Amino acid sequence: MKWNEVIHESNSGLVTRHALDWESLAEQILHRGGSPEAVIDRLMELEIAVPSWGVCTGGTRFGRFPGPGEPRNVFEKLEDVQAIHLLTGSTPRVSLHIPWDRIDRLHDLKYHADSLGLGFDAVNSNTFEDQQGQPVSYKFGSLSHTDKAVRDLAVQHNIEVIEVGKALGSRALSIWIADGSSYPGQSHFRRAFERALDSYRRIYEALPSDWRVFIEHKPFEPACYSTVVADWGISYVIASALGKKAACLVDLGHTPIGGNVEQTVAMLIQARKLAGFHFNDCKYADDDLTAGSINPYQLFLVFVELVLAAEEGVPDFDPAYLIDQSHNVKDPLEDLVQTVGNLQSAYARALLVDREALARYQESNDVLMAELTLQEAFQTDVRPLIAEARRRKGAALNPLAAFRASGYRSLKAKERPQSEKTSGTFQ
Amino acid sequence: MKWNEVIHESNSGLVTRHALDWESLAEQILHRGGSPEAVIDRLMELEIAVPSWGVCTGGTRFGRFPGPGEPRNVFEKLEDVQAIHLLTGSTPRVSLHIPWDRIDRLHDLKYHADSLGLGFDAVNSNTFEDQQGQPVSYKFGSLSHTDKAVRDLAVQHNIEVIEVGKALGSRALSIWIADGSSYPGQSHFRRAFERALDSYRRIYEALPSDWRVFIEHKPFEPACYSTVVADWGISYVIASALGKKAACLVDLGHTPIGGNVEQTVAMLIQARKLAGFHFNDCKYADDDLTAGSINPYQLFLVFVELVLAAEEGVPDFDPAYLIDQSHNVKDPLEDLVQTVGNLQSAYARALLVDREALARYQESNDVLMAELTLQEAFQTDVRPLIAEARRRKGAALNPLAAFRASGYRSLKAKERPQSEKTSGTFQ
Amino acid sequence: MKWNEVIHESNSGLVTRHALDWESLAEQILHRGGSPEAVIDRLMELEIAVPSWGVCTGGTRFGRFPGPGEPRNVFEKLEDVQAIHLLTGSTPRVSLHIPWDRIDRLHDLKYHADSLGLGFDAVNSNTFEDQQGQPVSYKFGSLSHTDKAVRDLAVQHNIEVIEVGKALGSRALSIWIADGSSYPGQSHFRRAFERALDSYRRIYEALPSDWRVFIEHKPFEPACYSTVVADWGISYVIASALGKKAACLVDLGHTPIGGNVEQTVAMLIQARKLAGFHFNDCKYADDDLTAGSINPYQLFLVFVELVLAAEEGVPDFDPAYLIDQSHNVKDPLEDLVQTVGNLQSAYARALLVDREALARYQESNDVLMAELTLQEAFQTDVRPLIAEARRRKGAALNPLAAFRASGYRSLKAKERPQSEKTSGTFQ
Amino acid sequence: MKWNEVIHESNSGLVTRHALDWESLAEQILHRGGSPEAVIDRLMELEIAVPSWGVCTGGTRFGRFPGPGEPRNVFEKLEDVQAIHLLTGSTPRVSLHIPWDRIDRLHDLKYHADSLGLGFDAVNSNTFEDQQGQPVSYKFGSLSHTDKAVRDLAVQHNIEVIEVGKALGSRALSIWIADGSSYPGQSHFRRAFERALDSYRRIYEALPSDWRVFIEHKPFEPACYSTVVADWGISYVIASALGKKAACLVDLGHTPIGGNVEQTVAMLIQARKLAGFHFNDCKYADDDLTAGSINPYQLFLVFVELVLAAEEGVPDFDPAYLIDQSHNVKDPLEDLVQTVGNLQSAYARALLVDREALARYQESNDVLMAELTLQEAFQTDVRPLIAEARRRKGAALNPLAAFRASGYRSLKAKERPQSEKTSGTFQ
User: Residue D100: how many CB atoms within 10 A of its CB?
Assistant: First the structure.
């Protein structure tokens, strides 16, 4: 696929109108005392990592309905990530998941990525599924398992994932464990926690000095009654016990439904323990929906915290931006392109917040005007801003339209014939 | 497996102690003005259907960890159900799921069931997964799909399931559809509802005159944003539109978390539209945990409504009792045996409620005493009652102990070698 | 307060800029195939009723912090509603609450309202508080109470409220009952429902032929365990039993948190039983926050359903728009002005949805494009549209700025000295 | 009221039957390998503090329905607490709330308490309501307020509450602040947290060396969008920053609905930061219902954690047991008597758990048997155990029956005429 041509072709039909819209918006922002160029600069710097598993159709326990042309291995996955990166200009890195991305030829992969202009973000370990021929099972836990042999296996796996990451240029390990219990009494909460902490410590010791480890919490699923790292409080206790290189990853769907995730983000910033994000959205559970699809205002409020922290110069503030979604009914590539746009939109709006006015209203408890200061920014139509940032990076003014026009999916459907159809987990 | 001998052997070591406990409890109940024999009679009449899928390990979208000796086809599943029935004396029927239970030899199956002393309860259709070679896909719905060809296929499948049920002696069709949407805008709510209602009508017309159809609602999963039959209100509208043979099935995990499911049960009784139950329990989502494992008091409160309705002689009150659980970390058979005990326990306690006193306290708004009337019944240790009911039916005093002592699982592990290991749906 | 002058003064400084913004937006809408003038027409027709209790500071069980200048009686409340109406051009009617609005002089009140250019919307009864000298108490219920004397009192009160409404020109009675139970066992669900239904029937019989009665449901609070009219299903059963003049009122905070209220709205439209709305927003419970303040996208999705129903010509579709908020930390008048703007914003965006495209994408299951069709409308900056609609009605371009500039609040603080300070309910 | 006589009279009619039941239960426990006497000993040691506000009827924002004979001042409140203590034998201390319990005559109060045989538990400050003549308002916060004058006032108030406690023999200060925000943007999360932490530090410095300070968290109410001390994570960060004398108080209704509060308890035990409890139960929000009334199994699971921690000898493990309920529809005294029974019931059942078996099953991941080990204990009818523990302390075998027979309430109704009727907060 000659993406440059695709993008050029797509943009050529849109650029005149875009110029008009952008000029009008820039003028409005200036009129309100903002700086459109400063926002553009920030937007152009925003980099979001794409998970390797994100370019495939996801599923639920009730089944999976894959589409045509999905990548069959990590090399093909990288091709797809490149497409997203070229279209949006904002996804230069991929986040691998081991062993889903079984890699025998690390040097080939690194070379492949280099040739596609891609790098590697945090690497993810997997101790929530058993692999063929595994000597002991993760059915009842991994890092917190009562059996030392299982814990050893899980620790060793994480250390191997670090090795993979080192070979590829990653700088962080992201750990999510499914350890927990499905019934009252199944686990001794405190002992399970102690065993998990001990395992995290062993992994932490194997971490290169310039790496970070991300601790991810989750209240439930697949464990139904309790999980060992259930909330940000536990994640914080662990990250504090481990040391400076450890911090807490916030998956937006891993907060109790309706909870105030933006405040949790603020508290982790306050504690210098915000590792970064797994972006997605949810309505009823950990739905892994497109970021911003259910409550775009909440996503904006999260970015407001990030912009405030950056502007105020909070020390060591450098969160990782990763996507973690499950594309069940949308084309995975289209969904990712849409996601990048939604994140940019939330970020751009957050950048437009009149922070001086906000601080003033907060200080004087002018509740309505403080709120309105956020709402004014949120109501701004930032589409021309995002398009302009893309244009300046040589990306597509309308990446979705460009993708659809490219014929990439149907091309890949021919190149990548699928062998099997995975069904749900009940059978 | 010679279950009679297993049970006899197991009981012989327990029966002396049991006689003591039972005598003591019976005396206590009499002392409080209750009738232990009346409770025993009801308990002995309680019949619960086991779902054919329930004898296998379930899974989540993060994987499945099956155990040894699981049944590999519907014939073996019936063997397992028989074991539960003989141990507990209370599960004489199985509820099939088509096409999970692919059946070419219906007569053989009927004969097999007869020989095991089992019958067939409601049959379940499946239009939430695609089958090999299916001409059109259920990815975007079934009974409510925008494409008439898909709706026709789904309606036709349901009619075929009725045919299977007729051949086997079932008297009800249970329909759960996964139709819905994962994103705002994906569905036109009202048109989707109209299409679904039309499809339900077509199935209803094919229903034999002595059959019933159970409409099951669910708020989410696998659809993440909306489902066509989301709550009991919609289910009720559909069942009312269809006619007398249609009623609403309550799955205890398909109510908003923390909601008052016992009141919903009461309202459906009031409206003469309670079809019956899918029993299970949940903490965070539709977890399909063992009934009574998270909130046993709630399960008791549901049975209080059932006992009240029966005692008051509500017309046409004849709910079906079915189990619908996902056994992820327990042995499926042990879990089902435990479940039957939990249901009996909730029922026995509900039968012990002093209904006259309750009515009097309710009438005079003596809140505390009305509540206490329920709590007194709930606090009663009904284990000897349940054991006695089992003993009189020739079942096991302690079915779990008997099952473990039987060596059934290890025997089946040898007889039923497993071929493959199903992993999660992400890959 | 000479509002005309205030508005004129305020607008004069904004109108030049507004003309620019409006022209630019109108051009954009036209470019996308929309009709800015059609949207303006609809916006100008939108009428929202203000509750009389809404112009005072609300409270929680932990206390109340009233501000200066709040109205001390229904006559002063109407003055405040007039201010909102003149500033926004969209709140021509007030919704009374009896007996909070104790009215001895109905003719004076009607005259007063006429002179202020205000009319009366639905009248609200109150059977959730005891009044001084009341012969029997509502502590344990009203329309569903076990004691007929209490039910009679509550029915009679509702009939008197109708009489008040008739004298003032109202055309609807809105009934919310707090009846329910705080503990399991306290209530016999079905009998309580039957008693309530009977009481509703008696009120219905007293309803003038050109009136409607709105049945409002609520899952909890003040009753903690169950409420007699808990959800839309029960409300629907009641409204259906009563007849054509009865329909279901949707308070946006009376749906389980995180539930899909827009689908409930659609189902009530489908069933021809949508009475209208109590607009507000919530995060954790029935918070009665400013509409659109927590999840503005959800409010937009509700309006999308309303616009679709109107466009499709659903018969008898004529929902009432009422506000029901509790202003605890904002100035009540400012909050109401903001609310009207938020409702207009949600409506304007819903009107901008390309309904043809949406239908096409829904029909072909192009999930992403269907969703995007909504998002494109939602992302549009409709502030100039709303301002233009206001300008054409002679209202304020920026009503909040005009209100603050007017000095109304400090003027009233002098005119309306407060006597007492209400504290919380614990003491 | 001669409680000794009341109790003697009440017990005399029950003791024969009790002896029978107790003997039978003791034999059963012994048969199962437990020690009934050990459980009795523990039960007799259990001490629960009664909040002074708990002896009055509570309310909701929709009103309050007080009953006759409620105490009108702190002296009368102590009389009521004494009644509960004599009837149950387990509530020797009262927890005051300042300034609800306005105390000019501290020496008199101490003398009064001494003469009633009562002591004082943790004292509670109140900075969520304004008092008459207060120079600045808590409307927008207290310990975290943006205005230093307000923070100073709130800090000073807490220090004064410590002084009251010192005079009365209390050993702990319990702080709950309502600080938070009702709208996005209202608060700067991190700055509000910093201000609050600074205020907590100032109070901590004033704490006597043998005192403890309890930090109470709450997710919402009265603040609707965020609270400064929203969850156990924030509470833990504060308690850790303050030092050894600070720990975290768990109110069972201040966890997200459906969340795993027993795990939170375990984590705080693990971190040596569990201060104690505010016992109650809830269904939909912070309902402050009778402990154990909605989910008695959960209350039992909390006590299982407490028993495990005590048995394992966790250092510094000494949680405070306080009740915090709102009695809206039950007689407050009866409700408190019932509550004590429910707490004893949960504790007794937790003490009956076969901890060795539990540990063994947990270690070997025998999920079902581990769960069953809890369930067996929970199903035990412990009423005779609790009655026996009461009997040995000279308290009532059936305290509710004794209370009703005593005529205490009607006596007090005459002695304590009520002046006014508090209504809800809306008006």
Answer: 17
Euclidean distance between CA atoms A291 and A339, whole angstroms: 6
Which of chain A's residues have a Cβ under 8 Å away from the Cβ of C344?
none
* Contact check, Cβ <8 Å, B294/D294: no
Q: Which of residues 96-115 of C touch A (CB under 8 A)?
A: none
Q: Pick from C139, C123, C120: which is nearest to C131 by CA?
A: C139
For chain D, the farthest-separated pair of C-alpha atoms sits apart, in whole angstroms, at: 67
D100 and C426: CB-CB below 8 Å?
yes
Chain D residues close to B383, C-beta within 8 Å: 379
Task: Indicate the residue of D193, D231, D305 with minimum beta-carbon distance to A270.
Answer: D193
Q: Does B129 touch chain A (CB under 8 A)?
A: yes
D336: contact with B, CB 8 A cutoff: no
Residue pair D11/D87 in contact (Cβ under 8 Å)? The answer is no
> How far is A167 from A165, CA to CA, in rounded Å?
5
Q: Is the pTM of this model over 0.90?
A: yes
Is the pLDDT at D63 greater than 80? The verdict is yes
CB contact under 8 A, B364 and C297: no
Q: What is the pLDDT of residue B102?
A: 74
- Tell me, what's the pLDDT at C420? 56
Q: Which residue is closest to A333 within chain C, CA to CA? A: C368
pLDDT tens digits for C106-117?
A: 999 999 999 999
The answer to whether C8 contacts chain A (CB < 8 Å) is no
Calpha distance B298→B349 (Å, rounded) = 12
Q: What is the dihedral of CA B385, B389, B394, B395, to 10 degrees?
A: -70
Q: Which of C379, C383, C398 to mutate to test the interface with A (most CBs of A within 10 A)?
A: C379
Look at A188 and D259 and tell me if their CB atoms are within 8 Å: no
Distance CA(D185)–CA(A365), nearest Å, equals: 10
Residues of D in contact with C178 (CB under 8 A): 62
Contacts of B34 (CB under 8 A, 6+ apart): B352, B354
Residue B65 structure tokens = 């960890």
Distance from CA of C81 to the nearest CA of A (A): 19
Find the radius of gyration of the CA atoms of chain D: 22
CA distance linking residue D87 with residue B255, whole number of Å: 41
- d(CA D141, nearest CA chain C) in Å: 11
- Residue B275 carries which DSSP code? E
CB atoms within 10 A of CB B420: 6
Q: Across the interface, do A100 and B427 touch by the CB < 8 Å criterion?
A: yes
Which among A64, D111, D352, C57 is positioned nearest to B422, based on CA atoms?
Answer: A64
**What's the pLDDT tens digit per position in D192-205?**
999 999 999 999 99
Q: What is the pLDDT of residues C365-412, one digit of tens each?
A: 999 999 999 999 999 999 999 999 999 999 999 999 999 999 999 999
- Cα separations (Å) of A291 from A340, B134, B161, C65, C262? 9, 33, 40, 38, 20
Contact A379 C378 (CB under 8 A): no
User: Low-confidence residues of chain B, pLDDT below 50?
Assistant: 422-427
Which of B140, B147, B228, B145 minimizes the C-alpha distance to B190? B228
Which residues 219-258 in chain C show a CB within 8 A of chain B?
Answer: 219, 225-226, 230-234, 236-237, 256
CB contact under 8 A, A367 and D308: no
* Residue C419, burial from CB neighbour count under 10 angstroms (0-12, 13-18, 19+): exposed
